[in-house]
Design brief:
By secondary structure, the protein is α+β, with helices and mostly antiparallel strands. Helix content is 42%, strand content 13%.
């Protein structure tokens, strides 16, 4: 764009005025439009009016930029939560009042979402997705409806706290946390229920070991139920307890 004098030709000060406008400025088109509008309106172009056009053009350019996308919010603290975590190919739906401690012991591969809730809410979610439930455990097969639900929970309540421990954010595999158990020294074998009672954990915990391929059956009972080496069960229980003690983050 040229800056014209009232008569023909360029003003004697035109070069100096043009030097005030950077043609590589992202707002150049807005600046040029403002100067053209001023010229057409008969406003005398001076150093002051050119500088004003530059500032106005830059403000217009900035106002047209898309607003920055806010980072995904971190889930606020709740007295109790229902959580959705990934362990191997399965999604575990559980509840806790101390997420940091619970996940330190559970050591999921990823924490998908959490929502405020207690055991009653947890049971409702178990019923909601009972068609995907693995046996009587707290583990569920992945499917479109569960994935959509997890996504909606995350959108409503934000992303889970990235400081909560997982094998993902610790950059370690599940095998690092649960190495191969040593050779058993006892031939004692137990069913799933007997295993839970023997080491004082919930049946769902033992089910989790089974579905994560941490605990393999070595035979069947007279009723056809899978049997597991008691030494393997004790090893996993001890390992889980060690992880909980070493990874627990105590509330302030």
């Amino acid at each position: 764009m040229r800056i014209h004098a009232e008569d023909e030709g360029t003003r004697p000060s035109g070069a100096a005025l043009l030097a005030l406008v950077d043609t590589t400025d992202p707002a150049f088109m807005h600046i040029a439009a403002d100067l053209r509008e001023a010229r057409d309106s008969g406003i005398k172009l001076t150093e002051e009016t050119v500088r004003e056009a530059v500032e106005t053009g830059r403000r217009r350019q900035a106002s047209e930029q898309p607003a920055p996308v806010a980072s995904e919010p971190v889930t606020p603290d709740f007295p109790s939560i229902v959580y959705y975590v990934l362990r191997g190919p399965l999604v575990k739906i559980g509840t806790t009042i101390n997420p940091a401690s619970r996940f330190a012991g559970l050591m999921p591969d990823d924490i998908l979402a959490v929502e405020p809730g207690d055991r009653l809410d947890e049971r409702q979610r178990h019923l909601q997705f009972r068609h995907l439930r693995v046996g009587t455990s707290e583990y569920f097969q992945q499917a479109d409806d569960l994935t959509a639900h997890v996504r909606s929970i995350r959108c409503e309540y934000g992303a889970p706290d990235p400081a909560w421990p997982t094998t993902k954010n610790l950059n370690r595999s599940r095998a690092d946390f649960f190495p191969q158990p040593p050779s058993a020294t006892s031939p004692d074998m137990v069913t799933l229920g007997e295993a839970a009672d023997a080491v004082g954990v919930r049946r769902g915990t033992v089910s989790g070991w089974i579905y994560r391929n941490l605990l393999a059956p070595v035979g069947k009972s007279g009723r056809g139920r899978p049997l597991y080496l008691l030494d393997d069960v004790k090893f996993l229980a001890d390992r889980s307890a060690d992880l909980t003690r070493s990874r627990v983050v105590r509330p302030q």
